[in-house]
């Protein structure tokens, strides 16, 4: 679905700068994304790094208190770090509120036996090393979907293509969606289009991409984009709240992710990190409130998708070979 007649939001500080004769660069309407979600919305919300039922309960309580609408909850430690009972509790809690739950698939290189991820080059990063790691991700995907999870986070192109083939073959439910991790997120339009064709339903791009990069991507692909408006320190620690309206204008359809800088890492999560996980969960919701307040002040809050929306729309795919 496309929309080329959106009202431009108020730009931060523009009226005050005009009064003192300070020039502001003109916006080019051609820079705007022509795309929307299937429901007509241009943006949705996501609370990331919600690592278990207790953190989820904290997020749900705080989002109700601060009136922060939530479309998606995501987790980063991995399906394999949760018991069946914990996954079921999270599925049920999100279903009660019509929130999409997205869990991360299995083994990845940063916790594997290889040393290359600790070299200056970073090696292969999060990717699944060898057949066994790939198979572990598949095992996670089957287990999670059998427990009711319908969104899976992936950090490897081969895992993504494998899970897409499984979805096409009916091994995974047809309504399962795949979200690409920020740590392998594409940084150019050609790569973005390749991930879409491999089966991605939303793609987390690095938070240091410029608005111009967003426009370039949107000329290639309409697949939903995920972006940390505030990024964790290991992803750069960028805080881009004042750009939120422009990022939506350029990058729609866009998930606004409310991350948290200047906070300790919690992956893989365990009880030893409980207080940190709960405190950061609360603060992520508060950061979301700050972003939503900014959008409201700038007249850009009207494009939010209805709560409960999760459909990514019709996307392009590589043909799955016969016999798969």
What would your notes on this structure say?
This protein is an alpha/beta fold and 324 residues long. Helix content is 35%, strand content 11%. The protein has helices at residues 14-19, 53-66, 84-96, 130-146, 157-169, 189-198, 211-218, 244-251, 274-297, and strands at 43-47, 72-74, 100-104, 151-154, 177-180, 202-204, 225-230, 254-258.
How are the secondary structure elements laid out?
Elements: H1 14-19, E1 43-47, H2 53-66, E2 72-74, H3 84-96, E3 100-104, H4 130-146, E4 151-154, H5 157-169, E5 177-180, H6 189-198, E6 202-204, H7 211-218, E7 225-230, H8 244-251, E8 254-258, H9 274-297
Parallel strand pairs: 1-2, 1-8, 2-3, 3-4, 4-5, 5-6, 6-7, 7-8
Helix pairs in contact: 2-9, 4-5, 6-7, 7-8
Proportion of helical residues? 25-40%
Any idea what the shape is?
Answer: globular
Q: Name the structural class.
A: alpha/beta
Number of helical segments?
A: 9
Order of strands, widest sheet: 1-2-3-4-5-6-7-8
Distance between the termini: 31 Å
Radius of gyration: 19 Å
Care to count the β-strands?
Answer: 8
The whole-number mean of residue pLDDT values reads 91
Please provide the ordered H/E string of secondary-structure elements. HEHEHEHEHEHEHEHEH
Fraction in beta strands: 5-15%
How does the major sheet shape up?
Answer: 8 strands, parallel, barrel
Low-confidence blocks of residues:
1-5
């Amino acid at each position: 679905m496309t929309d080329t007649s959106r009202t431009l939001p108020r730009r931060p500080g523009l009226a005050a700068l005009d009064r003192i004769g300070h020039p502001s660069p003109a916006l080019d309407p051609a820079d705007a994304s022509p795309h929307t979600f299937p429901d007509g919305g241009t943006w949705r919300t996501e609370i990331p790094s919600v690592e278990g039922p207790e953190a989820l309960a904290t997020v749900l309580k705080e989002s109700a208190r601060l009136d922060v609408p939530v479309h998606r909850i995501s987790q980063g430690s991995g399906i394999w770090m949760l018991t069946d009972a914990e996954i079921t509790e999270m599925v049920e809690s999100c279903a009660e509120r019509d929130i999409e739950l997205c869990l991360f698939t299995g083994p990845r290189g940063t916790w594997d036996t290889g040393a290359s991820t600790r070299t200056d080059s970073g090696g292969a990063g999060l990717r699944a090393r060898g057949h066994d790691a790939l198979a572990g991700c598949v095992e996670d995907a089957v287990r999670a979907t059998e427990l009711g999870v319908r969104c899976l986070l992936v950090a490897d192109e081969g895992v993504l293509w494998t899970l897409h083939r499984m979805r096409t073959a009916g091994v995974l439910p047809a309504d399962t969606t795949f979200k690409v991790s920020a740590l392998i997120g594409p940084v150019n339009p050609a790569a973005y289009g390749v991930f879409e064709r491999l089966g991605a339903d939303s793609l987390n791009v690095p938070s240091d991409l410029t608005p111009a990069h967003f426009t370039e991507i949107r000329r290639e692909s309409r697949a939903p984009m995920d972006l940390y408006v505030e990024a964790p320190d290991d992803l750069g620690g960028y805080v881009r709240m004042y750009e939120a309206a422009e990022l939506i204008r350029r990058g729609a359809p866009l998930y606004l992710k409310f991350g948290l800088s200047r906070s300790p890492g919690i992956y893989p999560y365990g009880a030893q990190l409980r207080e940190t996980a709960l405190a950061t969960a609360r603060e992520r919701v508060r950061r979301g409130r700050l972003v939503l307040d900014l959008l409201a002040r700038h007249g850009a809050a009207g494009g939010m998708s209805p709560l409960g929306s999760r459909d990514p729309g019709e996307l392009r795919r590589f043909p799955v070979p016969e016999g798969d």
